[in-house]
Amino acid sequence: GCQCAGLSPRPAGSLRIMTEARKKKRVVIAGGGTAGWMTAAAMGKVLEKVCDVTLVESDAIGTVGVGEATIPTLVTYNRLLGIDEAQLMSALRATFKLGIAFENWTDVGHRYIHSFGITGKDHWTAGFQHFWRRGRELGVAGEFGDYCLELIAAEQERFKHLPDLGLNYAYHLDATAYAGFLREIAERHGVVRREGKIREVRRAEDGDIGSLFLEDGSEIAGDLFVDCTGFRALLIDGALGVGYEDWSHWLPCDRAIAVQTASVHPPRPYTRSIAHEAGWRWQIPLQHRTGNGTVYCSRYMSDDEARGKLLGDIEGECLSEPRLLRFRTGTRRAHWHRNCIAIGLSSGFIEPLESTSIHMIQRSVMRLMQMFPREGVHQPDIDEFNRQTAYEIEHIRDFIILHYHLTNRTDTPFWRHCRTMDIPDGLRHRMALFQQAGRVFRANDELFAENSWTQVMLGQGLMPQSHHPVADVMTEAEVTRFLSYITENVNKTVAGLPMHQDYLGSYCPATKSDL
Ligand code: FAD
Questions:
Q1: Strand runs (DSSP E) across 72-129, as ranges?
Q2: pLDDT (tens digit, 9 = 90+) per residue, 235-289?
Q3: How far is the CA of 174 from the centre of ligand 1 (A)?
Q4: Which sequence positions are flagged as catalytic?
Q5: 91-102 b/e with 16+ CB inside 10 Å = b?
Q6: Which residues are near ligand 1 (CB < 6 Å)?
Q7: pTM (global) more than 0.85
C-alpha cells in the first residue's frame, strides 16, 4: 500500500476514513422496549463516532408496556443524556414522585411512607433514628417521618425544585412514551432502527453470537450484542443458554394485572402501594391518567379473583383493557456472557414494589459504557460486570423481601407464608442489627442508603430495643430543642411549596403528543 499511496487518485484522507469505518464496532441491540432504547440513546450519544449501532424491534411483538414509577437516579441519567427535564415531563405527561406510601403492609389499616428524603440529622457515630428513639422514650418526639422534608411535602401534596436545600425526587412517567423520547435521541446520534421479527440467533464458529436472522430473510451481523428482548431473553438464554436463578421462594408473587384509569384526584407526588390478601396493588398518577395494577401470587389468588378485586378497588373509569402479565422473580446467572450483555427484563426481574427495574437498566447501561471494549471482549471485564451487577441486584432483592417478611399480618395464608419464610442471611443480619440497637450500615455502593432501610424497618414495625449511647449525651431539654428545630424547619419549608398539581401546570404542562 504505502508505495502506491502517492499515485492514488483519491486523497489519503479518505483511505484513512475507510479503514476507520471498517474498524467501527458493530453493536446490535435486540429489542426496543425501555431497556433497548435507554441503551441505544446512551451508546449513540457517547460512542457514535466509533460504533455502528443497530436496534431491532418488532411492532408485532410489542413491549411489556408497564413500568411507570422511577427512583431519583433517573434524574441523573436524563442529565447525562442532556435531556431537558421540563420538555421531557411535558411530552410524557409525567409527575413528580417523592416516595411510596405503603398501606396495609404492616397491618391492615396501617400506613407509612418510604420517602426519597433524608430524615432528621445524623451524627457521625449514629444515625438520626437513635436521637429520635431517645426522644420517643422521653415522650417528646413525633412520628419518624415528621422529620423528613420530602415525606411531609408528599403528605401535603406539594412540590417545587429546591436548588439550595435540595428535594430528592423521581418521576411517574409513561415508560412507553419515555422509550419513544429516547428513540429520537438515539436516531439523532446515528442509531439505525430495524423493524422485524428475529427468527433465529446465529452463532459464529467460536461460539459467540454472530448475527440475528430476521423473518424477512435479512441478517444483521455484529461484534457485540445487547439482549433487550424482555422476558423472552432470546439471546442470553435462547441462544447462549445462560440459566436463571429463581427467587420465588423469597418473592412469591408471580403475576400482575395492569389497567389505566381516568384520574379522580389531582396527581399525588407519590406512588401508592396497597397490600391485599395475596400481594399488593399500585396506583401511579400521571398528569392525564392513573396507572393501576395488582401484583399477586397465583398460589394464593386466582387470575379471576385478582382481576375482580382490582376492578372493584380502582377509582375512576377504565381507559384500557386489563392486561395480565406473568413473571418469575429471579436473576440471570450471568448478565454478560461471551459477546452478549443482557439488559432489562432479559436479565431478571425482582418485582416492581420499589420501582427498581428502570434503575437497574440504567445501571447496566452505565456499567457497559464504562467497560465498553475497544477490541474483542475480555474476561476480566465480563467478570467485573457480572460481579457488580449481581452484588447490586442481591441487595435490592433483600430490601424488597424485607417488606414482605417484616409484617404483623397473619390474616391470610399468603402473609403467614411471608412472615415465616426463610430469608437470606444478609437480611437476617441487618434486621438483627437494627432490632438490637437501631444500627444500619450501607453496604458499599448498594442502592438503598441507611435512611431507606431505617424508614422501611420502622415502617414495617421493627422498633429498636435500644439506641446508641451518644443520644444520651444530650439533656432532655436539648433533645426536645433539637427535634423541634428540625420539624419547624421542615414545616416552614413545606408551607412555602406550591401544590404539586399547580407546579406541574406551570413547569411542565402536558403537551399534546402522540408518543
Ligand atoms: P420489553 O418492554 O418486553 O421489550 C422487549 C423488546 O424486545 C420489544 O421491543 C419487543 O418487540 C422485542 N422483541 C422480543 N422478541 C423479539 C423478536 N423475536 N424479534 C424482534 N424483537 C423482539 N419498572 C420500573 O422501573 N418501575 C415500575 O413501576 C415498574 N412496574 C412494573 C410492573 C410490572 C407488572 C412489570 C412486569 C414490570 C414493571 N417494571 C417496572 C419493569 C419495566 O416494565 C421493565 O423494566 C421495562 O419496561 C423494560 O422492559 P424491557 O425493555 O426489558 O422489555
A1: 95-97, 99-103, 111-115
A2: 999 999 999 999 999 999 999 999 999 999 999 999 999 999 999 999 999 999 9
A3: 13
A4: 97
A5: bbbbbbbbbbbb
A6: 31-36, 56-58, 61-64, 66-70, 175, 197-198, 228-230, 232, 234, 256, 293, 325, 327, 344-345, 352, 355, 357-358, 361
A7: yes
| 95-152 residue pLDDT tens | 999 999 999 999 999 999 999 999 999 999 999 999 999 999 999 999 999 999 999 9
Q: In the sheet that 209-214 helps form, which strands lie side by side, from edge to edge?
A: 198-203, 209-214, 219-221
Q: Looking at this protein, which amino acid is placed at residue 235?
A: L
Counting from 1 in the atom list of ligand 1, the atom nearest the Cα of 31 is: 7
Under 8 Å between Cβ of 293 and 276: no
State the residue for C-alpha cell 395494577. 293
Query: Directed axis angle between helix 379-405 and helix 413-420, to 10°?
Result: 120
Side-by-side strand order, sheet with 271-276: 111-115, 99-103, 271-276, 279-285, 290-296, 255-261, 323-326
Name the phi and psi angles at 37, rounded to 5.
Answer: -80, -30
pLDDT of residue 164: 73
Is the separation of the CB atoms in 272 and 69 below 8 Å? Answer: no
Instruction: In whole angstroms, give the CA distance from residue 153 to residue 23.
Output: 53
Gyration radius (Cα) of the chain, Å: 25
Query: d(Cα 366, Cα 352) in Å, to the nearest integer?
Result: 21
Length of the chain: 515
Residue with cell 422498633: 463
DSSP assignment, residue 353? G
Integer Cα distance of 408 and 461 in angstroms: 8
Q: How far apart are CA 341 and CA 147, in angstroms?
A: 43
Give the up-direction half-sphere exposure of residue 351: CA atoms within 13 A in the CB hemisphere.
33
Mind listing the pLDDT tens digit for each residue in 79-91? Answer: 999 999 999 999 9
CA nearest ligand 1 atom 34, residue: 256
CA distance 343 to 38: 10
What's the pLDDT at 445? 81
Distances (CA, A) of 7 to 10, 15, 19, 233, 502: 9, 13, 18, 52, 71
Provide the pLDDT for residue 511: 80
Task: Please give the grid coordinates belonging to residue 437.
Answer: 440497637
What is the secondary structure of 298-313 as a DSSP string? TTTS-HHHHHHHHHHH
CA 65 to centroid of ligand 1, rounded, Å: 7
- In DSSP notation, 485-499 reads HHHHHHHHHHHTSPB
Q: Could you give the CA distance from residue 356 to residue 448 in angstroms, rounded to a whole number? A: 10
Report the sign of the C-alpha dihedral through residues 155, 161, 163, 168, in that order. positive
Where residue 1 falls among pLDDT bands split at 50, 70, 90? very low
User: What mean pLDDT, rounded, does the chain reach?
Assistant: 93
Nearest to 45 by CA among 179, 186, 181, 178: 186
Question: How do strand 99-103 and strand 95-97 relate by DSSP bridges?
Answer: unpaired
Distance CA 307, CA 314 (A): 11
Among the residues of 189-287, which ranges form H helices? none
Which pLDDT value is given to residue 2?
Answer: 34
